Amino acid sequence: MLQSLSYVAAAIGVCAAAMYYMMVLRATQINMRHTLETRRVMMVRDITKEMQNEAYTRSFYELMNYEWKDFEDFDRKYGSENNVEASARRASVFINMNSRGAMLRKGVLSIEDIFDSTGGMALVFLWEKYRPIVEEFRRRYLSQLYMRDFEFLAGEMQRYVKTHEPSYEIPETFFKYVRN
């Protein structure tokens, strides 16, 4: 009888240890989810803060107001050999958009996070304006990977808007403010 009691006590101990392990594992999973959500919220906050930065916004608008006839004209006016400031401005904004696209592609951020923190379709307008330039850079100097995540982001943003607002059409004058 004493031996039976010791078996029962051992079984109760094993069950208690297993239950404790499951509770600790569950708490760890909850903490990990909370940590990941906190990090995601902080990234969205940082992106929003950057987009609200006057210097960044000015750079974006200046890029949207650049005008050119073809790649040679673009390169003459805004290329790194002739206009370092314009080239640096473009690189800064493009790299920023490319990194956001990479975060989306890797599942770090959702399309809703990026849409809400970047001003919606503005980055699509920028991509559409510069698509021929990026494609020519890819063809002439860089690989097809150049700005691939910026392109991915713009495509996902267009799909998101089409899903949530099917009647939306990108204005033909999306790349330049036109006064009425």
Describe what you observe in this structure.
By secondary structure, the protein is mostly helical. Helices cover 76% and strands 0% of the residues. The chain is built from seven helices and no strands.
The helix count comes to 7
The description of the largest β-sheet is: none
The number of distinct β-strands equals 0
End-to-end separation in angstroms reads 97 Å
Order of helices and strands: HHHHHHH
- Give the DSSP E fraction (strand runs of 2 or more residues): under 5%
State the helicity in percent bands.
over 70%
Uncertain spans: none
Rg calc: 26 Å
Mean pLDDT: 83
Structural class: mainly alpha
Backbone shape: elongated
The multimeric state of the shown protein is single chain
Number of domain modules: 2
Layout of helices and strands:
Blueprint: H1 2-52, H2 54-65, H3 71-78, H4 84-105, H5 111-118, H6 122-140, H7 148-164
Helix pairs in contact: 1-5, 2-4, 4-7, 6-7
A few lines on this structure:
With about 180 residues, the protein is mostly helical. The protein has helices spanning about 1-50, 55-65, 70-80, 85-105, 110-120, 120-140, 150-165. It is built from seven helices and no strands.
Quickly list its features.
180 residues, mainly alpha, 2 domains, elongated
